[in-house]
Each structure stands twice: as structure tokens, then as C-alpha cells.
Hints:
Blueprint: H1 2-40, E1 44-49, H2 55-75, H3 82-91, H4 93-106, E2 113-122, E3 125-127, E4 130-132, E5 135-144, E6 151-157, H5 172-181, H6 184-191, H7 195-217
Parallel strand pairs: 1-5
Antiparallel strand pairs: 1-6, 2-5, 3-4
Helix pairs in contact: 1-7, 2-4
Amino acid sequence: MKLKNVFSRFKRVFILILLLLLFFSICAFSYINTVSAHISESVFRLHVIANSNNTQDQNLKYLVRDKLIEYMNSLAKNCKSKEDIITLAHLHLPEFEEIAKSVVLENGFDYDVNVEIGHFDFPTKNYGDISLPAGFYDAIRVKIGKAEGKNWWCVMFPPLCFVDVTSGIVPEESKELLHEKLSDEEFYLISQNSPEIKFKFKLLELFSTISNTLTAKK
Length: 218
């Protein structure tokens, strides 16, 4: 009888712990999802996909990236909003494609290049000491050849693309511009790489993956 009572108590405690974990997980997901949605509304990203994962194709991806960032930097130096950047990107979409194709040809490849602007799914990504949560973001996507290689991401507005790639440092002016678009709480969240925040971002990524999988099956 005593053993049965102990088991019953243990069962109740176990269920209570599970319910508390579920409650905190849902709260964390809801909070991060809200923050993620607002962050995604504030940035415009660049996404370059290599033809394959071999060394030559990966190096080509970076060469294409550098030229596109250089072009956007000169094109959008006076832009003050995401909407301005997207408008410019649409107007100059043929130039983006032409620049990418020229880099491909100049380096001895004959890959086709496809450039599009849309709303795409991104995983959690670090840019130096800035982390952006998983979610759907407006972006310009560049597919090189079969586009079966590793991806490369950055943020074109605010200009986090212009990070010193070797040091991984985001310029202070870029951070300030990003801070202007976000609340203090949101900016603190993405600029602090603490284990707790990383866990919340991973939780969001997990829920997003599950949601996308269920949606795809319908």
C-alpha cells in the first residue's frame, strides 16, 4: 500500500514537472516568435547558394558574394530604410544577375545564375557578435548552377554584410542602425550570445522546422 502511494505521488510530481516544462517552453517560444517576427520585418538579407560543396564552387560563391556586396554598398549608401533597399534591389535585379554571371564566367565556369527577391526561411545565424533568430525574412537569393552547395547569408540592411570577414566584427555604425529599428529589449536579445538566448533561438528553430514539416504534408 505504501509503495502504491509513493508511486502515485511520484507520478503526480512527474506529470507536474512535464506540464511546467511544457508551459515554460510555450512561453519562451511565443516570446521569441514575436521578437523574431519584428526583427524579420526590420532587415533585408542576402543569400548566396553555391553550385556544390567542392572547394572551387565554394570559393566561387565567396567571389560572387564580394562583388554583390560591393555593388549594393555603392548603390544603397544613402538608403535609410528597408523599403528603400528592397525598391532598389527590384529596380536593379538584372544588374545583380549580370554581376554574378560575370564573376562566374571570369573564373572559368559556365554555371547559370538565378537571382530572385522573396520571403525565405532562414535558420538561426550569427554575424560576428550579432545573432538573428530563425524565421522568414525578405531577402535577395542568388543560386549558382545547381545550387546544391552550402549557403552563405548576411544582412544587406542594416548593412551587416559589411563585416570584416576575417575578424567577424560588426561595425558599430551598423549596430546603431539596427538598434534604431528594434526595441532596446530586442536589440539586447540578438546582441547577447548567452547560453539562455541560444537555447531560446534553437527552440524557435525547432518549432519552426516542425511547423514547416507539418505544413508541407498538408
